[in-house]
Amino acid sequence: MVSRVIPVDPFDLVIFGGTGDLARRKILPGLFRRFCAGQMPNGSRVIGAARGEMDSAAYRAFVAEAIAEFGGGRACEDGTLDGFLERMEFVTIDARGENGWSDLVALMRDDVVRAFYFSVGPSLFGDLAERLTKHGLTDADSRIVVEKPFGRDLETAKALNRDLAKHFDERQIYRIDHYLGKETVQNLMAVRFGNMLFEPLWNSQYVDHIQITVAETVGVGGRGEYYDKSGAMRDMVQNHLMQLLCLIAMEPPSKFDPDAVRDEKLKVIRALDPMVPHHIVRGQYEPGADAPGYREAVGDPRSRTESYIAMKVGISNWRWAGTPFYLRTGKRLKARSSEIVVVFKELNHSIFGEAGEHRNELSIRLQPNEGITLGVTIKEPGPGGMRLMNVPLDMSFAEALGPDGADQTDAYERLIMDVIRGNQTLFMRGDEVEAAWAWTDPIIQGWEARGDVPKTYDAGSEGPVDAVQLLARDTRVWRKVAP
Ligand code: BG6
Q1: pLDDT tens sequence across 44-58
Q2: Residues at CB less than 6 angstroms from ligand 1
Q3: Whose CA is closest to atom 5 on ligand 1?
């Protein structure tokens, strides 16, 4: 199966933070892959902008290195790299001063889409927005892309929204949550709203509970300083897991249109129950055989920041009241595995006398081995009476769809192209981010006020034992964390 490449209009994409880690690992290699796929039309350019002194030739060498290291995946034809590098420019610029802005003005063109990627810390968002407008670099069709973390609480998120709103319309602001760009995350919507099969059962009458797991094997690595001020709640739950929860729980939007989808997601966030402390388990990983423990990794032997969190979340609306959503995410766990499991209720009467032993589970695997599995009950083969067994109806996207079924297009590639196309469906709206912080803030404030200390867990395990008990109290069990 060949994926369709829909070309976008010619563009000038300015990457502030153009020599930073995100640009190197994700944005530049992602753009190169889109170029190889033929999606970057003639006349499009990428302009790196950063404080350091560098000329365009040196930037091209930097980009070539980034692609060699992180380009990965698909082969490009010989010579393609040179064609891509020709489209790279660089300006030295000071986000908080005047240096370099006239160079950028001289470079930009009027007859192409203008997009500005703020791949910098949020403290610079306001300065950049102000200077872009002050120097006449934007028009009503220009877009800006901003990265997470979008604030660290409701107040800071509101301040960021206000700063950006002074210069840009909401329809020009693209807040990235890269989970929304993942192939299988979008498939959640296709599965729910493109099939008759599931939606009638998608409610508390038929669904016992839902589990959302995003498990990572990596630790905090070199990001200790950032991470220790965030923790799993701010780093993963407030954004990525919240988005997954919204896509699973939202009402069908009337159409697949940015505001229709985002309106429905917002309603889910606003219907979340306030959390109670005994529905949350926080954890910190211990040292492993060949890797430091969390506290050592962040350089603070008394750190109380969580590298793991599990929670039982309720949604007070007509569809979901009474069906718990169990969320968990953590670093240095047994396997890299992100999965959503919808566990349907037991039969209310079994004609086979085996009630309580067989039930349907729909598992949507986000990464790795993207695919969908539906557990169904069948008769155990062979003579000897009617014995039942559970078997998986298993669809691996890679097997069902061929090479294009595997998650080849990185989330960033897809999202950047959506920015150029002007499609905001997979980006967070300002009110959505604020609502997510409004729910998250009291939880974090509660831990801080009580001085809660996270439980420890072994590196390479499935998390703290208390997380097992969180479900055991409800006579439920987590799915195994397995790739
Ligand atoms: C980032 C978090 O947003 O997502 C990281 O800051 C995390 O801590 C990463 O590791 C996970 O993304 P992915 O795409 O590897 O699942």
Answers
A1: 999 999 999 999 999
A2: 216, 235
A3: 235
| Phi-psi category of residue 410: left, alpha or beta, with phi > 0 → left and psi -120 to 50 → alpha | beta
Q: Looking at residue 75, what is its pLDDT?
A: 58
Q: Give pLDDT < 70 ranges for the chain.
A: 1-4, 72-75, 78, 354-357, 402-408
> What spacing in Å lies between the alpha carbon of 28 and ligand 1's midpoint?
18
Predicted confidence (pLDDT) per residue in 428-440, tens digit: 999 999 999 999 9
Q: If 0-12 CB within 10 Å is exposed, 13-18 middle and 19+ buried, where does residue 466 land?
A: middle
Start-to-end Cα distance in the chain: 25
CA of 221 to the centre of ligand 1 (A): 12
Pairwise CA distance, residues 64 & 322, whole Å: 54
Supply the residues annotated as catalytic: 240
Place of tokens 């992180």: 70
Query: What is the pLDDT, as a whole number, of residue 380?
Result: 86
